[in-house]
What does this fold into?
Amino acid sequence: MVIVSFAQCKKEDNVIDYREVFCGNFLFKTITGWETIDNTGNSYTTEFYSTITMVENTDSLILIKYKSGENTLHCGTYNYGSSIGPIVKPDGKLVFDINTECPHTIFIGFFVGTDSIEIEIKEYSLGGIDYQKISGVRKNTR
It folds into this structure.
């Protein structure tokens, strides 16, 4: 007779999720624009008060809603333009692997401490670049 025993791994209820320190109310400033190879272009700036939240049933995703409206930019399975759902690392670095499906799109994002966030999304094309530069500052205390 052989007896096999299995141990179950269970997350303790009192363990704090590292993402919590990055969540909260933020004021976002977004510069959206385009530039051509001969340095012509245009941009506009919006401000939007919103919340960064954890994505439920995941262990590393957060949802950043940085502009009003729906996502209007799509590439492969990725949608962005008013919100994104990147992975946040414990050190505050954001990972949004959009260039796996969209090789001409670059995402750079990170938290500065836990009270501000910087994101840049650039989409290169034959004649220029479309971009979003997003800055957020926490507007509440934890």
